[in-house]
Amino acid sequence: MSLVTVPFYQKRHKHFDQSYRNVQTRYLLDEYAAKKRTSSRSSSQKSLSQKSSSQRASDRGSFAATTCSICAKRVSTAQEEEEEHEKKRRRVALSWWSHGVRVACRHRASLTRHTAASHGALTSACFPGQVEDKLAGDRHSYLERMRRAPEILVRLRSHTVWERMSVKLCFTVQGFPTPVVQWYKDGSLICQAGEPGKYRIESKYGVHTLEINRANFDDTATYSAVATNGYGQVSTNAAVVVRRFHGDEEPFRSVGLPIGLPPSSVLPYMHFDVQFLEKFGVTFRREGETVTLKCTLLVTPELKRVQPRAEWYRDDVLVKESRWAKMFFGEGQASLSFSHLNKDDEGLYTLRIVSRGGVSEHSAFLFVRDADPLVTGAPGAPMDLQCHDANRDYVIVTWKPPNTTTESPVIGYFIDRCEVGTDNWVQCNDAPVKICKYPVTGLFEGRSYVFRVRAVNSAGISRPSRVSEAVAALDPVDLRRLQAVHLEGDKEIVIYQDDLEGDVQVPGPPTNVHVSEISRTYVVLSWDPPAPRGKEPLMYFIEKSVVGSGSWQRVNAQTAVRSPRYAVFDLAEGKPYVFRVLSANKHGLSEPSEITAPIQAQDTIAVPSAPGRVLASRNTRTSVVVQWDRPKHEEDLLGYYVDCCVAGSNAWEPCNHKPIGYNRFVVHGLTTGEQYVFRVKAVNAMGMSENSQESDVIKVQAALTVPSHPYGVTLLNCDGHSMTLGWKVPR
């Protein structure tokens, strides 16, 4: 019985060559075959010697009568010595063969321990046929262990190249048997014969290469490589973007641009499939808190260096990173974080993922309530502070008023300014300003300032608004007269254009003096500098006169005005005024300008009227949709405030804390099953309107389910002039 059990289907596979065997094993087997041949020859010689010895014995028997006893003794001794020598030689050969087989068995056992454990080790009693079967079975099991599915070691990488350049895509794959690799362009198999010379495909030592010669704009695509063998299949893909350059643009210099540049230029050529796995919902926060709006995405294909563009919008206005807002996009996430919330941050936030395949978006509302007031009953902080028409010594500041649902009405505002780089806040106005706009004067030319606003009511002063963006006190006219020539590095030469200065000493009078803004408390005058103006710095003096008085009074006797705009305060209510402007430099004072038309200080806009009918409808288990008619007089509207109240009570609460610019609003955070009524107020720079009429009482519960679409649309009849269609009702 064989000591090694080999399956029958392995015994019949004798076609393997012997090259896989170990050198020492092959040597032992060769020696064993030689010894076998030697032993067969020795056995045949022994039989012949036995026959000859028996013949000689008979001859000796017949010759014994004539030979002596001494000769017979010598012959027997020689025969015994020859037999002893033959036995010794056979013992040595047998011991050597046994030792060789044991060495071979130990060596094979060290190489294939688990095979020896399952099939048994060769011993000194193995027969030659069993050795060959054993080695053939080991080779087959070794090949079985080597076989595995393809595995990609180095994946494809995306490339962005210019037209008429070559691009090479490489990846490395391993597997046994050797995988077969096929290349695809946007899912279509690449055929070298279809476009001779266009593609070059190579495979060396597991490294597979696709080279695209003289790429053109049509080669922009997603390229995939698929490796397949009998045990599995793997694939890798990469994007190739071929850019066109125009005019004098040099492509080879542009290729060396930093990798960190935004990939927006390549996005229109890429197709991504975007799925939202987790979405941010309606969020409620308070001023001063932090919040992060985050979505988890599944972007296909997943490319590290080329991704779709993520954009955040608040009320359809693109949000940019600032000291308060930080954005992140990558690793399957898109987030927008606020480190210090203000009511400016309230609104409908939309995340849009933009690619060649289209736009995927998600929206939800962020509510930001007022922080606790510093004084009980004080109003909330103003919001949305903006700076306009900045000049050398003044700037116009605007803002939006807070909602005063539970507080007393706002009677005015205080405006504060602070020079950038300091913490010294200076109040700009002594008395509260009733309109949400104020020209701040007294700025120093060339310095930068930030501003804030505080609201005032009968209970006290509110918290300050969010600080505005820094604005420089410079005249835009002077900025337009500066021409910068950029040199290498960060150096530049600034050239001052003096074509209009002329060779004059005393300047001429200003021209085009007119009123650019009128309110009840001030008038803003604007004019054009004289031409020619001279090379010396200019100053302006403004004079006013009550119509019919015949006398002129200088407005800025103590302060020289350097910018061609000025806000005139302290005008008597109901009296018309005329104005004129003079220019001056170190050489003298010009003649007065032409006199303006009579101007009377008054508000040009009025408080808006109340909105019309308010209609509330069901939405979800915690929200209601509120719609209303616009007011009849909606001059310069800033938006609307919506209030809600539990039916039967008079405890009104604000639904939004920042004016919304449309006449429809979804009120969230309501109690399911409770009954509510709603009202709306219109807002502009002069203040808030009266409250609208209250809506009908509505119970908060989910709306009826929206029906599904009809189906089974069928053409029933067609007579050449008309068609009759039929369909099935929605499921």
UniProtKB/TrEMBL annotation:
<feature type="domain" description="Fibronectin type-III">
    <location>
        <begin position="509"/>
        <end position="604"/>
    </location>
</feature>
<dbReference type="InterPro" id="IPR013098">
    <property type="entry name" value="Ig_I-set"/>
</dbReference>
<dbReference type="GO" id="GO:0031430">
    <property type="term" value="C:M band"/>
</dbReference>
<dbReference type="InterPro" id="IPR007110">
    <property type="entry name" value="Ig-like_dom"/>
</dbReference>
<protein>
    <recommendedName>
        <fullName>Myomesin 2</fullName>
    </recommendedName>
</protein>
<dbReference type="InterPro" id="IPR013783">
    <property type="entry name" value="Ig-like_fold"/>
</dbReference>
<dbReference type="InterPro" id="IPR003961">
    <property type="entry name" value="FN3_dom"/>
</dbReference>
<feature type="domain" description="Ig-like">
    <location>
        <begin position="150"/>
        <end position="241"/>
    </location>
</feature>
<keyword id="KW-0677">Repeat</keyword>
<keyword id="KW-0393">Immunoglobulin domain</keyword>
<feature type="region of interest" description="Disordered">
    <location>
        <begin position="38"/>
        <end position="60"/>
    </location>
</feature>
<dbReference type="InterPro" id="IPR036116">
    <property type="entry name" value="FN3_sf"/>
</dbReference>
<dbReference type="Pfam" id="PF07679">
    <property type="entry name" value="I-set"/>
</dbReference>
<feature type="domain" description="Fibronectin type-III">
    <location>
        <begin position="381"/>
        <end position="475"/>
    </location>
</feature>
<feature type="domain" description="Ig-like">
    <location>
        <begin position="262"/>
        <end position="367"/>
    </location>
</feature>
<feature type="domain" description="Fibronectin type-III">
    <location>
        <begin position="610"/>
        <end position="703"/>
    </location>
</feature>
<dbReference type="InterPro" id="IPR003598">
    <property type="entry name" value="Ig_sub2"/>
</dbReference>
<feature type="compositionally biased region" description="Low complexity">
    <location>
        <begin position="40"/>
        <end position="56"/>
    </location>
</feature>
<dbReference type="Pfam" id="PF00041">
    <property type="entry name" value="fn3"/>
</dbReference>
<dbReference type="InterPro" id="IPR036179">
    <property type="entry name" value="Ig-like_dom_sf"/>
</dbReference>
<dbReference type="InterPro" id="IPR003599">
    <property type="entry name" value="Ig_sub"/>
</dbReference>
<dbReference type="InterPro" id="IPR050964">
    <property type="entry name" value="Striated_Muscle_Regulatory"/>
</dbReference>
